[in-house]
Structure formats: C-alpha cells, structure tokens
Design goal:
Oligomer: single chain
Number of domains: 2
Low-confidence stretches: 1-21
Mean pLDDT: 83
Largest sheet: 5 strands, antiparallel
Length: 242
C-alpha cells in the first residue's frame, strides 16, 4: 500500500485503519532522515509486522498524526516544523499514534501543551436542499478490509485529490489541512457509510476548493466561530542524524 498525499492531508487515515493490539506502545527500531528531494509529495506505508514507513513528512504533519489533530489546531514552534520533510522507518508495537508521540518526544525533544482558543472553523454540509450529491461523490463499493493491498485511502496532491472508501468525517479532516482552508472542519453532512470522491481545484486561479466542493461533490463549507483545542509547541529540536 503506497499513498501519496498533499502536504496537508491526513495520513492518520492510514494509521487508524489498522486494529490496535493490546500491547504497550513502543518503537523498537527507527531511522529518521531529512528528505532533501524536490518531490513535495508525502507517502506512507503500513506493512505487516508493525513496520511503518513515512516519506517526506513535516513535523507539523507528524504531530497531527500523533495527537489526532488537524493541521490548523497546532500552534507555536519554529517555521521549519512546517517546511522540512523527514523520512521515517520504524518497527512499531501497540498503538501506532502513541508510539509516534513517544518517538517525537525522544528524537525531536518535542514538548507541547493543549489549550482552548476561539477560532475560525467550518462545518461540512450538503450544498443542495434536496440532498443531491455532486457527480464526483459516490457511495463506495470498495472492500476496505485492513491489509497492505487495501484500495482505500487518499491519493494525489496539488489540487487533484482522490478519496477512496472513506467516511465523510475522514474526508472533512483531510479538507481541514488544505492551504486555502487551514481550519478545523466538522462533518455535518449526515451521510453514513464510505464514499469515493475525486476533487480537482486550483487555489491560485479558477475554481478553488470551496467552489469545487459545491460543483463536484454537492457539499459546502459553512464558516463558524467556535472554541477549539490547540496543541501548542513549547519546545522542539531538529533530530540528530542517524
């Protein structure tokens, strides 16, 4: 299973798709290297035996995975946490998110605290009064059973994103990370089950994600102002080379 996702997409979908075993979370072996390539795409693979491979992940994205937060709910820290990409290969036992949190604390010396702040948020809602969905959003018929060959997840980048076999709450979390949105998004569509969606938009010219959601998916982002829990970075350091 190889997923390439845009810089702000939720890779937590890949992690949470696996059943959690009753084991103490731990990282047995891990290598962390700075990704200096020119390809801005991110990738993730969860393989049998607890091997996890993360490609070109920023620390901001890693914090989002470890703490279950959208990118907009992370504050503080130096600029490099959202710019530098890292490749991580690890052997994980137990809950993967908890193990990743321990890894960030050990290798990046990450220290955070949480606090409530009033901020701009969005509710993902149906755009049409009759509930009609757009042509690009369809109820999925995919078999999303966990495994390395699962066809379900997120692919794409640069305004060309494909969601396969995901719940609307997962799609909402992904949309929250788009550069033009960058705010928490709550699913209020009332749609149950899993969906396939291919979304195309241009943040600089032509239809942006707000217009694309209405025209292609039959969904809209309704702005709100609410109290949201933020993860605030108090301390962090670049990891030493392996």
């Amino acid at each position: 299973m190889n997923r390439y996702v845009a810089a702000a997409l939720s890779v937590a979908v890949v992690v949470s798709a696996r059943p959690v075993r009753a084991q103490t979370p731990a990282v047995e072996v891990a290598t962390i290297k700075r990704n200096t390539g020119v390809d801005s795409r991110q990738g993730s693979r969860v393989l049998p035996g607890g091997r996890v491979e993360l490609t070109n992940m920023t620390l901001r994205t890693l914090i989002r995975i470890a703490y279950g937060s959208t990118g907009a709910q992370i504050a503080g820290g130096p600029d490099w946490i959202a710019a530098d990409g890292y490749d991580i290969v690890a052997k994980v036992t137990g809950d993967q998110a908890s193990a990743l949190k321990a890894l960030l604390e050990e290798r990046f010396h990450l220290q955070v605290h949480t606090e409530k702040r009033a901020t701009q948020t969005y509710a993902l809602q149906l755009a049409n009064r009759d509930g009609k969905l757009g042509p690009a959003l369809k109820l999925s018929q995919r078999d999303c059973s966990p495994g390395p060959a699962s066809p379900c997840g997120i692919q794409g980048g640069g305004g060309n994103i494909t969601y396969s076999g995901l719940a609307m709450a997962q799609i909402a979390t992904s949309i929250a990370g788009y550069a033009v949105v960058r705010a928490p998004v709550t699913d209020r569509t009332g749609l149950s089950g899993r969906y396939d969606l291919h979304l195309e938009f241009n943040e600089d010219a032509g239809p942006n994600v707000f217009t694309a959601l209405i025209e292609q998916a039959g969904l809209k982002l309704q702005p709100e102002k609410t109290q949201v829990e933020f993860i605030v970075v108090d301390r962090v350091e670049r990891p030493s080379p392996d």
